[in-house]
Amino acid sequence: MPWSALALVLLSAGLPVLTTADAGMDSNRSPALVPIQPIKGITLAPIEDRSLGPVGYGSEQCVNALNEIADLGATWISLTPVGRMADLNSYEVLHDFEIPATTNEELIRRTAGQARALGLKVALIPHVYVTSGKWRGQIDPGSDEAWDEWFESYKRFLGRYATLAQEIDAALFSVGVEFKSSTNYYPERWRELIDFVRSIYSGKLTYSANWDEAEYIEFWDALDLIGINAFWPLTWLPGQGFEMMCEMATTRADETESLSIHWDRPVVFTEFGVKSARDATIDPWKWPELCPDLTYDELTQAAAYRAVFETFGWREWFNGVFIWKYFANSDSLAQEAPTGFSPKDKRAEQVLSRWFALNRSWTTPDMWF
Fold first, then answer.
1. In terms of Cα–Cα distance, which of 262, 284, 264 is closest to 274?
2. Cα-Cα end-to-end distance for the chain
3. Integer Cα distance of 159 and 146 in angstroms
4. 210 strand-pairing partners
5. Whole-number CA gyration radius for the chain
6. What does the pLDDT look like over 219-253, one tens digit per residue?
7. What pTM did the predictor assign?
8. For residue 11, with 0-12 CB atoms within 10 Å meaning exposed, 13-18 middle and 19 or more buried, which class applies?
C-alpha cells in the first residue's frame, strides 16, 4: 500500500498523519535498506485458568484467534509457555503454571500446526512468572552458589522448550525474557545457555531484553537478533500527545540504531504494546491491574502505535515487531480489562492492520529473515 493510501485510511479513522519529513524519513530515500520479510507479529497469549475450561492454546477459540490474526495481515505469532518461581529469592524454575507442562507442550504443538496451516511463522518465547507477583528482572537467589543452582534449573526449563521449538519447526526462539538481574552480571553463563540451546535447536535465536536492559547486554554477538521488549516511556507528563510520542520514539530509535550498529545485528521488538488508557504512554510497562484509576482511551494507544511504527519501521536495522498482545480466546475479558494491552477491535488495530499491509520486500543481507 503506498504511503498516500495509508494516509487516507488513517485520516478516515480520525487520526493525524505524519509526512515523511515529520516521521524522520527522506522522501527521496531508496527503500533498499529495509529488511526483507519483516516480522509482522502478534503475541498470542495462553489462557491456563482451569475455571474457564478449554479456551487456551489448541482450543476452538484459539483457532478463531489465529484466523483473526492472519486476517489482520500478520505473518508471525509468538507463543509464550509459562514456567514459575515462588519468589525472587528462589533458585528453582518449575516447568508448569496452571496446567501440567506436558499438557501445555501438546497444546502448543497443536497451535503451532494450526498457525502454519494459515501461513503464520511461529516464535517460541518461554516466560518465567514469579508467583509472589514481583518482576522477574529482580530475581536474586543471594549468592554466586545459589545463582549456579538457578542457572542449572533454568537450563532444564530452557532445554524443554528448545526441544519443543525444534519439534514444531519454530522460526525463532528466545533464550530468556527480562532477566535483567543476571544478564548484566553473568554474561558467560548466558553464553553457555545459548551454546546449549544451539545444540538442540537449529533456528534463529534472540533474547527478549527489557527496554532498559538491552544496552548493557554483552552477549548479543552470540545471538541472531537483538530482541527488545519495547515499553519505553513515550511521554513524560499527562496530556502530552502525538508530537511528544514521535519525539521520544525518535530518540529511542537513534539509541537502538547505535546498539544495532555496534553489535551488527538486526533488532526485533519481541514485545511492544501500550494500554488502551489515557496517558498510558508515561509508563507503558505497568500491568493494568496495578493501575486502578485507568481511563479508557483508544486514541492514546493508536497514536502510540503510529509514533513507533513510523519512527522505527523505516530504519534498515529494524526487523519487525510482536504486538503485546492478543489472547487465545480473543473475545474473553477474563484475562484483561478493556483498558489493557490488547488492540482487538480498537483504533490501534486499524493502525496495525494498515501497517502490516505495507509492502516491504527488498533485498538485504542474508542475516535478515
1. 284
2. 21
3. 20
4. 229
5. 20
6. 999 999 999 999 999 999 999 999 999 999 999 99
7. 0.88
8. exposed
